[in-house]
């Protein structure tokens, strides 16, 4: 499975117990379990383990499907295939060629009621593999049209490349995963199907899409519409299908379809990964060797790994990871370990100290001795004073001007690493320059590795040309100090 970033943002997964309950409640796995419990000595299967046609009506009835439902046999066949592929039933092939095989309940069936959440999720992932394979297979009618005499499919005539189809679906789900884990709302917002299709088709550097590109996006949307309909019964996605009126050709002899409101994007399909879907897509990524971190991966690591690891996390994910880490440590020990890890003059050090401040803000007054121990530290003394003041500590020494300026540069460097040239950072820069009229005259002398970069960024961000020029001059002096 291929996704663009070398390292994905961390995903906040539900607990395995919650995910296992969700897996058991999915329509497709529920049907597979019912058929596995229904199967007995009289159940007959074909050479591939599929139910023989004569038994499909009974299987559909077991699932509570109406006898006049034209899709009943297909639903029963799909559920049975999942039961076979996941080991809920064991197939015994017939000894004679052309004869029917038999089935017994598989050992894994009992795991769904007596096993661990990991056991349940393992079976669900097996079902996902089956559905994934089905989603990349072309329409059965088209397959029959190109079936060769020897029973092999002529892929060239069909115009179907199995690997390309799998890669395309991997890419789509990878992009959907990225959009979900990067969503500050926690992945609650569904993604419009046209946007998801376009993310796979339209080149990043293309301005106005050509007619050919738009046609490819439209074809991809129709393909994804079919695939997401297949995935939804397994709980991978929540999907609002494409409005049938949009796909229907205008009947020349009949009334035209109702006009489409182009602004109502939901009519073109909306999709979101469920919590179970996030788990499933991540599992497939890990199996493919993709680095797909989850919140909680750093809980048993040292403070250095925590601060380095969360440096690239979105704010909400960093907060959750830090809270999990702190839950495993005594407050005073945690504070001391965090402060040691926050030291350094490397490029990532300012952001480590920012994450350290974030972590220390969650620690109670028990950590006070650790903060007092670093009051004279040139790198940590500023944040220690801030923490002690916020916690109402007495006898906190006032910071020197050098320390104030050093802490300001350090904080701005960290904010630049997190936000880049954001509106929020621009506001911070404007406020700082307005509050301290002689800031640049002193700031260029600050002995901090990021001083020149910070001053240069301030010159780039400040809207006042005169102030921006002062910042650039200060940056030049700092580089030549």
UniProtKB/TrEMBL annotation:
<protein>
    <submittedName>
        <fullName>Uncharacterized protein</fullName>
    </submittedName>
</protein>
């Amino acid at each position: 499975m291929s996704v663009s970033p070398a390292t994905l943002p961390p995903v906040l997964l539900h607990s395995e117990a919650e995910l296992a309950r969700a897996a058991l409640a999915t329509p497709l796995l529920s049907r597979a379990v019912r058929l596995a419990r229904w199967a007995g000595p009289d159940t007959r299967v074909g050479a591939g383990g599929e139910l023989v046609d004569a038994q499909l009506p009974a299987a559909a009835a077991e699932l509570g499907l109406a006898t006049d439902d034209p899709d009943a046999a297909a639903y029963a066949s799909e559920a049975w295939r999942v039961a076979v592929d996941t080991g809920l039933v064991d197939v015994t092939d017939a000894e004679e060629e052309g004869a029917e095989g038999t089935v017994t309940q598989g050992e894994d069936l009992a795991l769904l009621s007596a096993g661990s959440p990991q056991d349940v999720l393992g079976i669900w992932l097996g079902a996902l593999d089956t559905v994934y394979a089905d989603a990349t297979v072309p329409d059965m009618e088209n397959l029959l049209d190109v079936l060769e005499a020897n029973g092999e499919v002529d892929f060239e005539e069909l115009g179907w490349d199995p690997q390309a189809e799998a890669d395309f679906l991997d890419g789509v789900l990878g992009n959907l995963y990225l959009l979900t884990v990067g969503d500050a709302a926690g992945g609650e917002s569904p993604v419009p199907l046209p946007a998801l299709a376009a993310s796979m088709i339209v080149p990043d550097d293309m301005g106005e899409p050509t007619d050919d590109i738009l046609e490819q996006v439209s074809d991809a949307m129709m393909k994804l519409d079919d695939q997401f309909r297949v995935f939804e019964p397994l709980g991978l996605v929540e999907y609002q299908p494409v409005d049938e009126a949009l796909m229907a050709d205008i009947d020349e002899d009949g009334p035209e379809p109702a006009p489409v409101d182009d602004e109502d994007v939901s009519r073109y399909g909306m999709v979101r990964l469920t919590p179970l879907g996030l788990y499933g897509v991540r599992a497939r990524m890990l199996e493919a060797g993709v680095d797909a971190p989850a919140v909680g991966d750093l809980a048993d690591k040292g403070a250095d790994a925590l601060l380095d690891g969360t440096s690239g996390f979105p704010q909400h994910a960093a907060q959750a990871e830090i809270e999990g880490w702190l839950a495993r440590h005594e407050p005073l020990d945690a504070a001391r370990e965090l402060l040691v890890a926050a030291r350094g003059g490397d490029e990532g050090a300012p952001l480590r100290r920012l994450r350290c401040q974030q972590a220390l803000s969650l620690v109670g007054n028990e950590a006070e001795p650790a903060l007092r121990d670093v009051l004279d530290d040139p790198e940590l003394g500023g944040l220690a004073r801030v923490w002690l003041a916020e916690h109402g500590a007495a006898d906190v020494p006032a910071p020197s001007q050098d320390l104030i300026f050093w802490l300001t540069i350090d904080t701005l460097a960290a904010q630049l690493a997190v936000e880049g040239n954001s509106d929020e950072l621009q506001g911070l820069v404007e406020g700082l320059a307005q509050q301290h009229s002689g800031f640049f005259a002193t700031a260029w002398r600050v002995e901090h590795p990021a001083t020149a970069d910070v001053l240069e960024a301030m010159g780039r961000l400040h809207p006042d040309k005169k102030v921006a020029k002062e910042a650039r001059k200060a940056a030049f002096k700092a580089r030549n100090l």
